[in-house]
Amino acid sequence: MQGGPRRPRGPAGTLGQDLEQTRLGARAQADQAVDAALDDLFADVERAVDRYLDWYFTVIGEYERLLASVAGDFAAAMSERLEQELFGTTRFTDRLARRVTRSSGGAAAARRAAERLASARPPRRSVAVRP
Fold first, then answer.
1. Using an 8 Å Cβ cutoff, are 92 and 86 in contact?
2. Helix, strand, coil % over all residues of the chain, rounded to 5
3. Which of 92, 86, 90 shows the shortest CA–CA distance to 54?
4. Please, are residues 11 and 121 in contact by the beta-carbon 8 Å criterion?
5. Residues 41/92, Cβ–Cβ less than 8 Å
6. Contact of 99 with 37, CB cutoff 8 Å
7. Which of 48, 39, 35, 31 is nearest to 91 (CA)?
């Protein structure tokens, strides 16, 4: 026998191969959709960096940082301002939650379909018995 994996023969092997190809295709499609969604979400965050830097290098920003350093925890104040500017103004969390909800609904439907296919049995073949 030559090396290499054996391929199952018959309907069960074909069904298994079809399921695997479908699973891999769905996974690749989901990966592309997730990448596109994250690119879209982070494009807004990237634009918000410019707004944060515009604030940071203004006289008002300088005074706010000075006041934060005198009044209390400078690092916490700057972190809060950065988070608000990058993620709050872009509604990042809300938009991410909507996308996750949409994609999880599709994933659940795909999982149910795969379970139905996996539990399906190939049709029985009648065998003629000759005397």
1. yes
2. 80, 0, 20
3. 86
4. no
5. yes
6. yes
7. 48
